[in-house]
Amino acid sequence: MSTLAQEPESPSRLAADPATSDRSVVRNLPLRSRPIDIVFVCFFSVFILTCIISDAIPTLGIPQTADTTNVLAHWNWQYSSAYDPLYEHPPVWLRFATGLSAFVYGPFYVLLVISLVKGWNWIQLPAVIYATMIVSITGIVIFGVEFFGEPQFRTPHPAAFLAFNGPYVLVPLILLIRMRKPLPFTRRF
Questions:
Q1: How many CB atoms lie within 10 A of CB 5?
Q2: Average pLDDT rounded to a whole number, residues 16-42
Q3: Number of domains in the chain
Q4: Other CB atoms closer than 10 Å to residue 105's CB: what's the count?
Q5: How do 25-27 and 14-16 pair as beta strands?
Q6: Spatial CB neighbours of 163, under 8 Å, sequence gap ≥ 6
Q7: CA atoms within 13 A on the CB side of 102
Q8: Assigned domain for 13 exists
Q9: Which one-letter DSSP state was computed for residue 19?
């Protein structure tokens, strides 16, 4: 018995395969059959929070000091004073990068998490664009400055810096590989 003869699935579970001329219907795999997407849901849910906690603060010009009354700014200061001197006193260009993260990537993360859970295949192209941007901006600019830039901006603790910031490059890079072909939710990876 053909699986297509069964009761029709909801539109979010079906996808037309652009590679076939007969436009046959390809079924999305349920989330439980896509373990990498469960991992992505977890990481990008955390990224939503970190956009609010860490990236909005410097973008809005809120001072990150030891004696601030703003708890989020104080958390940022605790991190940056120990591991990230560039972030402790962000130059204007970094405030643009954190602003992009807080006010563009943050909302995108919400949409991406929903798309991963619901299996919305149209997210593939926006995810590729996002992953390319974040890997370029974070991977090249931030890491380049933190490891090879002016001495006052170099991290004093490279291992801790990578532990905090590495996922923001590695996870989007894996997402880019995951989203390499159309209809990403019709396959496990």
A1: 6
A2: 82
A3: 1
A4: 23
A5: antiparallel
A6: none
A7: 16
A8: no
A9: T
Q: What is the pTM of this model?
A: 0.84
pLDDT (tens digit, 9 = 90+) per residue, 113-164?
A: 999 999 999 999 999 999 999 998 888 878 889 999 999 999 999 999 999 9
7 pLDDT more than 50: no
On whether residue 16 sits in a domain, the answer given is no
Which is nearest to 80 in space by CA: 31, 174, 146?
Answer: 146
**Amino acid code (one letter) for 63:** P
Give the lowest-confidence range in 11-15, 21-25, 124-128.
11-15
pLDDT of 68? 94
Structure tokens at 170: 């590695």
From 84, 105, 83, 92, select the one nearest 58 (Cα to Cα): 92
Give the range of the structural domain holding residue 112, as residue numbers without chain letter. Answer: 33-186
Q: Each residue of 84-96: pLDDT tens digit?
A: 999 998 999 899 9
Residue 6's pLDDT is what?
40
Query: Residue 160 and residue 119: Cα distance in Å, rounded?
Result: 35
Residue 20 domain-assigned? no
* 11 belongs to a structural domain: no
Report the C-alpha gap between 93 and 148 in whole angstroms: 17
Q: Report H helices in the chain.
A: 35-50, 56-59, 71-83, 85-88, 92-100, 106-118, 124-134, 143-148, 158-165, 167-178
Torsion of CA 73, 175, 111, 117, to 10 degrees: -120
